[in-house]
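okkk here we go again. third time trying to get the adenosine-5'-triphosphate bound version out, last two times i messed up the smiles copy paste (missing a bracket lol). double checked this time i swear
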Amino acid sequence: MVQPRLRLRNIAKRFENTIALRGVDLDVAEGEVVGLIGENGAGKSTLAKIIAGIHQPDTGQIIVEGTPRVIPTVRFAQSLGIAVVHQELNLVPHLSVESNILLGREPFRVPVLKFADNRALRREALRMLDTVGLDVHPGTPVNELSIAQQQRVEIAKALSLDARLLIMDEPTSSLAEAEAAALLDIIARLRSQGISVIYISHKLDEVRRISDRIVVFRDGEKVVEKAADEATEEQLVTAMVGRELATMFPDRDAQPGEIALTVEGLLAPGLVEPVSFSVRAGEVLGIAGLVGAGRTELLRGIFGAARRQAGSVVVEGHGDARSYPLAAIQAGIGFVPEDRKTEGLILQMSVRDNVALSVLRQLAGLIFRRQNRETRVADRFITRLNIQTSSREQRVGSLSGGNQQKTLLAKWLAIEPRVLLLDEPTRGIDVGAKHEVYRLIAEIAATGVAVVMVSSEMEEIIGLCDRTLVMNEGRLAGELARDDLSEESIMQLAAQHGESSD
Ligand SMILES: Nc1ncnc2c1ncn2[C@@H]1O[C@H](COP(=O)(O)OP(=O)(O)OP(=O)(O)O)[C@@H](O)[C@H]1O
Ligand SMILES: [Mg+2]
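finally!!
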């Protein structure tokens, strides 16, 4: 047999009082795609970071192409042909796309020739952008791109290293289905060139499609390892969560009440036509569409995170909410943003402070604190959402990705909104936690909150929403009642070109 590209033996890692990995063995062959799945906090990203030279294992051995290695830095990992697309975006916001892709590896042979080599820099950047199918100018600052575009820059950056082992940690979490499919094609192509891939994702259908072998982690241990074509989805879910999940979506007996939110003639950056719709108390309204269709922009416009150019937003009949977030919150609107890192959470702060220091006071800059109340609120949500944290004082930045997402939800639930806007609420969370979030959304709706949910996962739109608006190129392309919801009916509206038909 050929030498495995990577061989891990008995890798263990502990962070203070959390054991992230308990002695993991893993082999990855040349040209093999290994799917790595497991619950939030199971240790997947920790393993990726150990291979990438970000963390050092406490015990164990890393053997790269037959040679035992200590990997002290990311740079050294790169020199061994290892590249990682991280779960949390790691781009430098104000730098251009091309500088991000080639950061620290600019093709300057001789420093004096810097200027001449800018041409080479651009050529290389364009080549990588083409590979990931991203059509933006290489000089665009990264912070002007959508999250989905940034994710592709991140992928381009890893691919530009010409790695022999590529680790992708949730690379498609903010891509829509068509874009995710394109990425899977790229991976298949890399594989046929002999590149090895460790593919971490919560999207089991993707993992099953792309992988040769699937490995399941639970609580820092490898609990299952199987050829992909021998693993059924049920088996994998059961292995991940340690129990069977009967049904993914809660039974909802929606009895929508009075109109809770009325949006009339709304225009905001990213919308090309005024948008009008209303949502009833207790209703879950889905917003579907491709990435870039204006879904996030619509939510941001309602919340006043982006300046409204025209139109009104009325909650429970109380006059127009003014167009800035504090006014929206005071009117009873909560907004769980897509990008938890820059818009959602304060990573250096504890779970307690993120959840319980109410958003309202954070925005208003008030520092008056009621410790006991905050502790109670935080503990209630840690339990209710089953946030895995060593204590309420743990820094949010050191939680696993999925548990950060739950903390973000908790933070907005704590303000008890009347209207809750959710942008990709289950991004990056495991199937067990998804199940919990769906139950939670159903519960919130049942208490009379109007929920508006943007999602790229059609399954969850179909499984959860009472009604769905489909957006296409900055306008509303149509509305689908629960009984008419299907992947086909959504795609038909989402993908049609030109002016939407009436
Ligand atoms: N820097 C850190 N400091 C303290 N604890 C950490 C740190 N990094 C990870 N952990 C903890 O280690 C455990 C494993 O985290 P890891 O990020 O590897 O999970 P994961 O499997 O990638 O989860 P997810 O699916 O949510 O991304 C978690 O309990 C997490 O809180
Ligand atoms: Mg992770």
